[in-house]
Amino acid sequence: EARPAAKPVVQQPAATVAPAPASTESLPTFGTEAFNQLAKERGAAWLTSRNRDAVSLLAMWDLTGDETVLREAAEKFPGNPQVCLAMLNLVFTKGEDPAQQKKWTDRMIAANPDNPLGYHYQARLAVAKGDAVMTRAALELALQAKGKINHYLRERMIGAKEGLLASGVSLKDTFFLSTVAPMAKGSDGLVALSGLNVFFVDQLKEMKAPGRATEYQELAALGLRLAEQQRFTESPSLMNELLAHGQRMKFLKDLDPETEIANSGRSVAEELVVATTEGKALSKLLKEVAPAEQYLLNSPIEVQGQYSDRMMMDGEMAALRYLLEVMAKANP
Prior knowledge:
It is a single chain. By secondary structure, the chain is mostly helical. The radius of gyration is 21 Å and the shape is flat. The protein contains 16 helices and no strands.
């Protein structure tokens, strides 16, 4: 199937209204109806100031979960890749009509053919139809895509931050909400590839039959390449790292130990040793997350700001490592 050659410029947030005086009022808990209602009330003027563009509508969706603003964005900006991905997250999470899922998958690919995520969703549709050939074709297209996996978290966090500041939310709450809200709404996209695990499990099980050893090795190699691709996203998250590592370990164990891996020059057996060591480091990091989050809650506002900025620009992994460095200096 031919892939579109051009992609539109991704709409970027731009400051359009000066921050309102920060309120000292405590906000309701994020995700509650009380919070959602307050966010809508406070954000109404900001939405108007931006003429209810894609950035502001997505930010309000991320903060409130109000489907009406997301569907407004979908109607107004169906070719915006950020909107397409938000709609994909919604229609797949809700299990909506496959026709709607296909519509937004096609729009996502057309909006940004260089983002492998669109092909991951295309593969999920093929799995639902039981079409193994189409599934593999879509996954090959994902690997051929020129760009990194992009969940557009950076753009959505920046948009949410602008809206929160313009609505008079304190810096402390802004730093927290502008990172947490987009991550929560993008959770389906973060695990889009893991949704294909059943395909690999079923297919590899069938290929254990006599005479299918070559097919087995080829499919396991495809899974390994996809796991490797998932490690390198525009905004690396801990969830991505953990999922990619689990998939990588599985496929390395499925492959012939003597096979050479092209991008590393190591054999599968050698790569498995490296991956096992990396897994131990990830397990150690995972244990440090809860203490780091507790430290962040009570840290100076400058540290919270740096953490938020690093999360936006470089992803959760970079932000977490920064925080651990700060903690280490504070407790030598």
